[in-house]
Design goal:
With 639 residues, the chain is of the alpha/beta class. The protein has three domains: 3-190, no CATH class; 221-371, 2-Layer Sandwich (Alpha-Beta Plaits), CATH 3.30.70; 395-633, TIM Barrel (Alpha-Beta Barrel). It is built from 22 helices and 16 strands. It has an eight-stranded mixed barrel. A five-stranded mixed beta sheet has the order 2-3-1-6-7, with helices on both faces. Strands 4-5 form a two-stranded antiparallel sheet.
Length: 639
């Protein structure tokens, strides 16, 4: 156990010990004060009785004073219970003796009994209190009975001035002691009430923290659930609707990482404030966690009202934020689910609003979507494919097809792009654009990517052994593979296992990879280039185009995306873009490959523009190995 935890555990014990010690010291001080007051009172009584010649009373009081010194000594020694017991026994014995030798039940010594019992109840033990009470009652009854029967009769002399002094002294002493003890009791009660108030405040704070987000102060999911259920109960009586909006900030991680976590926290608080400004007084804004928020809107008239609220949120959050002195633009994606149309409980609505939110993100972000039943089918399909990917790899359901890459001027086959295919036993052929995003989200793209590299390199080496040593194979790499930081090792292993020369392998990278200009990425790409592997940029012109990285990483090939080539002949803008890419690439000594060439007119136009290589359905789609090898065997003539 570390020192901090030990200190946290010992602190309550230490506080309790300090409080106990302070209480004991106060009680010792009080008993000393009471002993002193009683001794002074008894001294006055003894002196008064000596003056009138009442030797018996004087003797009893003087002996009591001497015995009080013993109680005082015990108090000085810190023995509280013993000192209290001695004091109470002395006073009870003295009072009882005075009752019997003087005026019996009419004696003013009986006044002291009340004070003794009060003191015993506050300072003594329960057993001592009961013993003293029983002793006093027994003496009172016995004295009264003996006097009534005439067996023992206490004489009642005429009232003297000394009697007044004695009675006043007893009352004063009892009053003084009672005042001291009552004051202590009042202080204790006051402290107890203050402590109770602190406990109540702490409980309220704990309850608030348990039901609110500590950063933004918004209700958390627990409180949002309660308020949603209250709104739902009201809407059921009025036959209305309750909308649950699931909000996720777009690209919050980028802002959080670039400006720092304190700036990110500040941005979340500003977002929370704006959301509260948009909703009505009876609606609830909740922070779900991270950059996710929930909005519970009661009494809405169907999807139109919910959509109107979503548009207000999008508009409000699209206004610039000021964070750490920077102007920050933010957007969000919203999913909407309605009760009772889409469900009648919070968890169901939350799940469906979450689905709708992801649909909004898929549609381009800064958008809203309402839940529909097709989303359930899409999610179920997604989950099924995610579960089937790993077994598919183990059961060899994946295969590679190869699409020819052709030199445009000569028509000579120069290489092939490896394209993965999934032949699902129940669902049939599944397109890569369907399962690759799922594999990337689940991390399974790491295993799939390693398999593709191994298989493509092995196949290319088989072609080399058949005499096609000029054949190059290109393989697509996912940005997810680079995040692991060991993709160069995976590539090296595939080359080593197959024996393929590194110069015969081309790795296709997407432009989105270069948004992350981290040192780790630069180091991995540098190791790949030093290994002798060629690098190409796939789908150039559709994403993050930065000429700096083309030279920095010694990229050899730019692949023009098919969206620019399919309408090349009919669309002058596409032609202008392709011409600019070709000219720019050649000025940097890069080779240009055009994707999606489907007809002779497009081919001729690309040749006229100076494009070097191409691939597309004009020659062949992706083909199984056997079909591609037939094409290889015909390489005595152009493709």
């Amino acid at each position: 156990m570390d020192n901090q935890n030990r200190a946290a555990m010992e602190k309550p014990r230490l506080n309790s010990f300090i409080a106990s010690s302070a209480s004991t010291e106060l009680q010792l001080r009080r008993i000393s004060q009471i002993i002193f007051a009683v001794a002074v009172t008894l001294g006055l009584v003894a002196l008064q009785n000596l003056l009138v010649g009442n030797w018996r009373t004087s003797t009893i009081t003087l002996v009591s004073i001497v015995l009080l010194l013993v109680a005082h000594r015990m108090a000085r020694a810190g023995r509280l219970q013993l000192a209290s017991s001695i004091l109470l026994v002395i006073l009870t014995t003295m009072g009882t003796l005075l009752v019997w030798i003087d005026q019996g039940l009419r004696d003013h010594a009986l006044l002291g009994y009340c004070g003794i019992l009060i003191f015993a109840g506050l300072m003594g033990s329960a057993r001592l209190f009961l013993l003293l009470l029983g002793f006093m009652l027994a003496n009172i009854v016995l004295n009264g009975v003996l006097n009534i029967q005439g067996i023992y009769v206490n004489k009642v002399p005429p009232l003297r001035a000394g009697n007044i002094v004695d009675a006043a002294a007893v009352i004063a002493t009892v009053g003084f002691a009672s005042w001291l003890l009552a004051g202590d009791l009042r202080n204790a009660l006051s402290k107890l009430e203050a402590e109770n108030q602190r406990v109540r405040d702490s409980q309220q704070q704990i309850e608030h923290l348990a039901r609110h987000d500590p950063l933004t102060g918004l209700p958390n999911r627990l409180l949002a659930r309660d308020r949603f259920e209250q709104s739902l109960a009201l809407s059921q009586r009025s036959k209305g609707h309750v909308a649950l909006l699931f909000l996720d900030l777009d690209n919050f991680k980028t802002i959080n990482d670039s400006l720092g976590h304190p700036a990110g926290d500040d941005l979340l608080c500003q977002v929370a404030n704006r959301l509260q400004e948009v909703v009505r007084g009876g609606d609830t804004v909740c922070r779900q966690g991270g950059d996710e928020f929930l909005l519970s809107l009661g009494e809405v008239n169907g999807r139109d009202d919910a959509a109107s609220a979503a548009l207000k949120v999008l508009e409000r959050l699209s206004m610039p934020f000021t964070v750490s002195g920077h102007q920050v633009l933010m957007s969000c994606s919203l999913g909407i689910a309605l009760a009772p149309d889409d469900g009648s409980d919070f968890d169901t609505l939350l799940k469906k609003a979450d689905m709708a939110m992801y649909k909004a993100k898929d549609s381009g972000r800064n958008a809203w979507r309402c839940y529909d039943e097709e989303m359930d089918a899409s999610v179920n399909e997604h989950l099924r494919l995610a579960a089937d990917i790993r077994p598919a790899l183990a059961n060899q359901q994946f295969t590679l097809h190869y699409q020819p890459q052709v030199e445009l001027v000569s028509g000579r086959l120069v290489g092939a792009e490896a394209l993965i295919r999934w032949q699902h036993p129940q669902l049939g052929l599944i397109k890569p654009e369907t399962f690759i995003p799922i594999a990337e989200n689940t991390g399974l793209i790491i295993d799939i990517g390693a398999w593709v590299l191994q298989e493509a390199c092995a196949q290319a080496m088989r072609w080399h052994r058949q005499g096609f040593t000029w054949m190059r194979v290109s393989v697509n790499l996912s940005p997810v593979q680079f995040r692991r930081g060991d993709v160069d090792l995976v590539v090296s292993k595939a080359l080593q296992d197959s024996g393929l020369p590194a110069s015969a392998l081309e790795l296709e990278l997407t432009e989105s990879l270069f948004i992350d200009e981290s040192l780790a990425l630069f180091e991995v790409l540098d190791r790949l280039r030093r290994r002798g592997v060629s690098l190409s940029i796939d789908d150039f012109g559709t994403g993050y185009s930065n000429l700096g990285y083309l030279q920095r990483f010694e990229v050899e090939i730019l692949k023009i995306d098919q969206s620019f080539t399919r309408q090349l002949v009919e669309n002058p803008q596409d032609e202008a873009i392709v011409r600019a890419i070709v000219q720019m690439a050649h000025s940097l000594n890069l080779t240009v490959l055009a994707e999606g060439i489907e007809n002779r007119q497009t081919l001729e136009r690309l040749v006229a523009l100076g494009c070097d290589l191409g691939q597309g359905f004009l020659w062949a789609p992706g083909m199984p190995v056997k079909d591609f090898e037939k094409l290889l065997g015909e390489q005595t003539r152009p493709v």
